[in-house]
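The authors assume throughout that readers already know how a fold can be written as discrete tokens. What matters is that the chain and its backbone geometry are given together, residue for residue. A single example would do more here than another paragraph of explanation. For illustration, here is how one protein appears when written out as sequence plus structure tokens.
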Amino acid sequence: MEGMQLFKAFVLGVVEGLTEFLPISSTGHLILVGHCIEFSSTEGRVFEVVIQLGAVLAVCWLYREKIVRLCRGVLARSPDETRLALAIAVAFLPAAAVGAILIGPIKMHLFDPLVVAFALILGGVVILMVERRRVVPTARATQDITLKHALVVGIAQCFAMIPGTSRSGATIVGGLLSGMSRQTATEFSFFLAIPTMLGAALYDGWRHHHLLTPDDTAAIAVGFAASFISALLVVRALVRFVATHSFRVFAYYRICFGALLLVWFGLAR
């Protein structure tokens, strides 16, 4: 493995960790940055999915006490923990079902820079529209989340399979529309990321592992470590940010970045 290829893997790992839990589309940024730095591996899309493990394990580490409490509560049949576990399951299932059916066509036809650009802009507009609403939250903590809240989030997560939409953005917007507070929607998005991202990474890793060479393994290890460390920093910062700010800044970023990409790739074609 050449040093430059490892450096490119490191860059993509940092990009993954920085963008996975912000509502700005990690997949979109990985596609675009990978295109710009001309990163290549035997199975580039598997690399992009597997390095997400670094980001999701960062969440597992930061929320380890709550995860342990949740697991113990479910085993002890605690009402609050059982309700939250069921909510996570309900929110996870729609995207899992749709993804199992459509992931092939989506990867074949929608993994394109122009699709990413349009999705970034549209997602930014949606965030601005949601932020304009004046609704009293009905779920101010994860213990308040009902199955109805979770189903809305699960349906919203299905749209995240379109590159540029953002999984965290879709689930947070779904949470806000369902009646969650910003903090609750953000935290629930973190919890939902664990089964969603672990499932995607393990599925793609198992399905395409035979295509990976020792060089690809080295690149994945570098990207994994970079993703883990950068995600640790972002998750902590995001939790502090949403306590006192709206998501408008991310909406404006998406719209400006998407417009720039439309011009860039439009002229390139």
About this structure: The mean pLDDT is 88.
